[in-house]
Amino acid sequence: MLSPKRTKYRKQHKGRIHGKATRATELNFGAFGLKALTPERITARQIEAARRAITRHMRRTGKVWIRLFPDVPVSSKPAEVRMGGGKGSPEFWVCRVKPGRIMFEVDGIPRDVARQALTLAAAKLPVRTRFVSRFGEEG
User: Fold this and answer.
1) What span, in angstroms and rounded, lies between the C-alpha atoms of 8 and 25?
2) Is it the case that residue 60 has pLDDT exceeding 90?
C-alpha cells in the first residue's frame, strides 16, 4: 500500500475539503480516466483495491497511472479508552480528493474494456465518479 517514506510531522489536523480541484483535472498520460465528482478522503487501501480491480480486468495489457497519493495521516485512539491522554497514534493514510480530480488513467486498451475496468474501480471508492476520455464525450 502507498504511504510516505517520511513526513515533517507525525500527526495532522483533520481539516475540511473545500472547493474544486485545480491540479490533475485533465488527462495527461492515458486515453481514458476516472474523475471524482464529490469531495472525500480516499484511503491507501481503497486506492490499492481500485488499482487491483483495474489491472485484473485489463488482463496485464495496457498501462495504468495512479494520480493520487495518500499523504495525510489519520490517527485514532483504541476502543474503550477514556477521554484525555492526548491524540491517538497514526493508524492509516488518506488522500484528500476534490471534485474534478483525475484519479486513475489507463491507455493501450479498447474503450469498452477501459470503461468496464474503471467502473469496477469506481465501485471500490467512496466518491461519485465519471468516466472521461481524451476523445471527447464524457459519460
Assistant:
1) 27
2) no
Residue 115's nearest CA partner among 85, 83, 90, 138 is: 138
Give CA–CA dist 126/46, Å, rounded.
Answer: 8
Beta-carbon contacts of 110 under 8 Å, excluding residues fewer than 6 positions away, are none
Q: How many helices (H) and strands (E) does the chain have?
A: 2, 7
Would you say residue 124 lies in a domain?
Answer: yes
What pTM value is reported for the model? Answer: 0.94
What's 54's domain CATH number?
3.90.1170.10
Looking at every residue in the chain, the average pLDDT score rounds to 96
Total count of domains within the chain? 1
Torsion, Cα of 53, 56, 61, 64 (10° steps): 20
Domain of residue 108 covers: 32-78+87-133
